[in-house]
């Protein structure tokens, strides 16, 4: 579901300087198909730069988050997880056994949420939906 966004170009556009270590972090985030934690980002970044410190990763992620380029999630596994802040809305389904995160968008569900808000006297301006489940055994 996620389209690749050039974070490095967005950093340049916003005047954020990318050192070699920041560039390594940005490349890891840009190439991630999952929602990695800082620890996972650090582990992946050390492939490009074995001397990159976890503190550098934390600072870079915070910088990107404050610039509005990353979105933080808490999927209940004890670690903040991150994804590129996209212009398009989507929701998440989290497998509680594996931690796998599935992105989805259901227009019918979106309309239902809007109707519920209106029924309760609100205009829906934003929302975040996270569903938690376990994968069904396909052999049943």
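Sequence proposed for the structure above (140 residues):
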């Amino acid at each position: 579901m996620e389209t690749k966004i050039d974070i490095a170009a967005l950093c340049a556009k916003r005047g954020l300087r990318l050192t070699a270590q920041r560039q390594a972090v940005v490349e890891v985030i840009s190439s991630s198909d999952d929602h990695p934690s800082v620890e996972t980002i650090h582990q992946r970044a050390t492939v490009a730069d074995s001397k990159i410190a976890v503190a550098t990763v934390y600072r870079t992620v915070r910088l990107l988050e404050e610039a509005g380029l990353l979105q933080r999630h808490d999927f209940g596994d004890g670690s903040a997880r991150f994804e590129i802040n996209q212009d398009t809305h989507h929701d998440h389904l989290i497998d509680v056994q594996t931690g796998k995160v599935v992105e989805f968008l259901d227009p019918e569900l979106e309309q239902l949420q809007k109707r519920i808000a209106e029924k309760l006297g609100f205009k829906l301006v934003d929302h975040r939906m996270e569903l938690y489940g376990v994968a069904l055994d396909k052999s049943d």
